[in-house]
Amino acid sequence: xxxxxxxxxxxxxxxxxxxxxxxxxxxxxxxxxxxxxxxxxxxxxxxxxxxxxxxxxxxxxxxxxxxxxxxxxxxxxxxxxxxxxxxxxxxxxxxxxxxxxxxxxxxxxxxxxx
Length: 114
Description:
Elements: E1 41-47, H1 51-62, E2 69-75, H2 82-88, E3 95-98, H3 105-113
Parallel strand pairs: 1-2, 2-3
Helix pairs in contact: 1-2
């Protein structure tokens, strides 16, 4: 996934300014200084009723400027505005799921990576 620039992301909530709301991050070069590709990394954001904080977390990951990124959001069945925020940024999220937390939810993540 290529990281978006700030003007490609949804507009921030009213009154939110500064990074990651209204300031962009410098983009990394296409390749590392030794001309090798950037390593592929996966970032997982867990959430349960964290809608108040989730949008800032998602934007902060996306605006890091890292191009070889897999971004995953695992939600435990939130009842707040979490799903609204995930849907707002779904275009840049590699995989997401929202379901009540269970003992076996870790296996779903493991199966995704297999």
